[in-house]
Amino acid sequence: MNRQRKHIAIVEDDDSIRELLAENLKRAGYQVSAFFTAEQFERKADAGYNLLLLDIMLPGKNGLALLKDLRASNHMLPVILLTASEQEAHTDQAFASGAIDYIIKPFNLNHLLLKIENLFEQLRQADSGNTQSDFQIGAGRFDPQLNMVVRDKKEHKLTPSETATLLYFVENPNRIVSREELQAAISATTKNLTSRNLDNYVLKFRKLFEPEPKEPVFFITIPRKGYALKRG
């Protein structure tokens, strides 16, 4: 990947976090523009950025309000939100406003850099047509680019952790996947993922894809071993 051509904007009012992000992104080969407020960014919003790292809690206009304004003006710049809250209502607001991902403070810098690199790679593959954009599983259709499942014409948003888990199943069909393997595979994008989290994800996937969630034929439990996604 030619990172030098990727221009990342940062909107963060905490000087230490903003400077840390800017310094490390530059070291990683990205072009960086950093802003203290949403209003500062808006004055240069058309500078050709490839990604926006956006803090939610800002002086003046907050991050969610800025994101809504960008989407209302058909500005489709990819946005990763920086948040100090992992409350479900907060993350739901993030996705409803048009963010493609979020990361919780304090964050692991290496994980954030990997998340950014993976995002650019996904966008590159999508632009080149080298990746399947969505996947039909039973009664639902999964779109990993939009963190979404559509069933019966109704859209169901997924968290980044759920998307990463579901995508791993899709990429590894018809074999047993242990909880430990799943935890290791998506640890770069999700911290503190527990076995209980994974069990709940699978229950959710059954509700989204199985014709009869209580009698699963796609997301199968293998006692004492893990799960398997059955696909033709």
Description of the molecule:
There is one protein chain. By secondary structure, the chain is α/β, with parallel strands linked by helices. The mean pLDDT is 85. It folds into 2 domains: 3-128, Response regulator (Rossmann fold); 135-229, Winged helix-like DNA-binding domain superfamily/Winged helix DNA-binding domain (Arc Repressor Mutant, subunit A, Orthogonal Bundle), CATH 1.10.10. It contains 8 helices and 11 strands. The protein is elongated and about 55 Å long. The strands form 3 sheets. The protein has a 5-stranded parallel β-sheet, sandwiched between helices.
Identify the notable features of this structure and list them briefly.
single chain, 232 residues, alpha/beta, Rossmann fold, Arc Repressor Mutant, subunit A, 5-stranded parallel sheet, 4-stranded antiparallel sheet, 8 helices, 40% helix, 20% strand, elongated, two-component regulatory system, Two component transcriptional regulator, winged helix family, WalR-like, phosphorelay response regulator activity, WH-like_DNA-bd_sf
